[in-house]
Amino acid sequence: MTPSQATAVERSADEPTASARPARPARAARPNGQWKVDGTAPLNGNEAWKQEDGGLSVRERIETIYSKEGFDSITGDDLHGRFRWWGLYTQRKPGIDGGKTATLEPHELEDRYFMLRVRIDGGGLTTEQLRVIADISTEFGRDTADITDRQNIQLHWIEVESVPEIWRRLEAVGLHTTEACGDVPRVVLGSPVAGIAKDELIDPRPVIEEITRRYIGIPELANLPRKFKTAVTGHPSQDVVHEINDVAFVALEHPELGIGYDLWVAGGLSANPRLGERLGAFVTAEQAPDVWHGVVQIFRDYGYRRLRNKARLKFLLADWGTEKFRQVLEDEYLGYHLPDGPPAPKPPSPGDHVGVHEQRDGNFYIGAAPYVGRVSGSILTGVADLAESVGSQRVRLTPHQKLLVLDVPPADVAAVVTGLRALSLEAEPSAFRRNTIACTGIEYCKLAIVDTKETARLTIDDLETRLGDTSRLKPITLHVNGCPNSCARIQTADIGLKGQLVTNDAGEQEPGFQVHLGGGLANQDREFAGMGRTVRGLKVTSANLSEYVERVVRRYESDKTSDETFAEWSHRADEEALQ
Asked: Where is the composition biased (Low complexity) (predicted)?
């Protein structure tokens, strides 16, 4: 036996065997920053500045310092953090290509101008309010305006020096930008036909008004882990994309309890998409504001704050499940049990409300499509003038980037349709103009990699020519997004396009998209929402987008069964057919 072998024997005789050794203590799980579990000590810089000086506080500095001393006087944590609590983001500096989006620092990407988001809960505007927004656009925003897919209006080229005056004008007519962005309860989506539709189950406006009156702009809910999105509808078409909101109330008639709401929680897309889930609970209209408050408090108190990419409510629900979530809601926050309820039935009609529709009072509302939400202050002024010329004083915005004029007398319907067309708002749009949406894109967004608005506009016009012979084609949704964050809901479109740089046939990189196929939310053609299919390597350049869409749509037309939707076909088709 060698000396080393002998030493090993002696050591082994003195040491316990592996099975006899005491078990190593389990490593303590890292805290997730859940206030009710881990305490409120901030675990990252973002959480630290939110606790030190909340986002709502920056308004005073904007009014008294930054608007007087200019852009260079703004501190970094205010500029890149707290400004969002008042609807302000710096916009992208012109001329920076998408290949630099991920390599440059925020201060290198951003311009000295702001995007300003006007918060419009429920999407309802008077013509007076619309005219004020339009005037702000033309006077302060270079005549820019976009209708978003969350019923807001976004303006661009806003200078910090102008912000106090803009707030003064908005607030004089009952509008504001409070918590239009930031880690807060964002705008509450509401049915665009609330209170007027002949087939409405319940008017959701009282619920929306109570939520916003009680809870928007209060310090207790102004520091959430991330943004919190809400939707409320009383219409059978389920017209508020409820499956992708953090909390949603969908009207239905309970067989025993009458008309109320089905409660959904924890939907969200972005780079980690997850559809919301029903809690199986029936909520009355009177209970809805308190239930909303309970859900948002769960998010505040139990949401994950350590990592921002895991800080949405969908991650908590994935760990808890619906049974625990409902129990915590009822036991800790409501103090009473919610009765069980059935799901709402499949929507019987489209939820974009495009076209001419009779109201319950005998007048009509007319829904019109701009090109992917792109309007202008001049167009909005024209809409206000047109509506008032026929005695209407109400318009609505939709979660599909559309605009409705309400209260049109029967004798004036044709004139309003024609007048909207003259303003580039189409009440009788082609299938692709009606069903295409697009995010802001590289034109203004610091996160974007490719252009979206102009690409979508050119594609729509091209497809109207290329596919004009497919008159019986069922509507196909086309969603165009400038980056992976899915502001344009790419995973829930028939054809969803995620912006990225794509290698072309010549081996060069150029703007393009990864393609998702066959997604969708509940609608007249599908009972349940579902995510799109991603085919490995399926990418298309922006220049070839129209050609690709035409090719895949014609394959669908030739291969589908009689009643098969594009989504159904694209999930069963061979990958070769989708190329």
From this structure: 16-31
Instruction: Please give the Cα distance from 135 to 263 (Å, whole number).
Output: 39
Residue 455, amino acid? T
CA distance 384 to 551: 41
Spatial neighbors of 185 by CB under 8 A, at least 6 apart, are 179, 211, 215, 216, 221, 224, 228, 230, 296
Within 10 Å of residue 23's Cβ, how many Cβ atoms? 5
pLDDT tens-place string over residues 351-372: 999 999 999 999 999 999 999 9
Dist CA 274 CA 84 (whole Å): 25
Q: Each residue of 501-544: pLDDT tens digit?
A: 999 988 999 999 999 999 999 999 999 999 999 998 999 999 99
Q: Which candidate, 179, 186, 273, 178, places its Cα nearest to that of 230?
A: 186
* Planar angle of CA 500, 506, 507, nearest 5 degrees: 55
Q: Which domains, and CATH codes, for the chain?
A: 434-578 (3.30.413.10)
Q: What is the DSSP string of 426-448?
A: BSS--HHHHTEEE---TTT-TT-
Question: Could you tell me if 520 and 496 are in contact, meaning their C-beta atoms sit under 8 angstroms apart?
Answer: no
Edge to edge, what strands does the sheet with 110-118 contain? 88-92, 110-118, 153-158, 145-147, 374-375
Query: Could you tell me where the beta strands, DSSP code E, fall in 266-370?
Result: 277-283, 355-358, 364-368
CA pair distance 470, 44, nearest whole angstrom: 54
State pLDDT tens for residues 465-506: 999 876 577 789 999 999 999 999 999 999 999 999 999 988
Coil, helix or strand at residue 243: helix
Give pTM, 2 decimals.
Answer: 0.94
Dmax over CA atoms of the chain, in Å, equals 110
Distance CA(260)–CA(284), nearest Å, equals 5
Lookup: tokens for 258: 């009458």
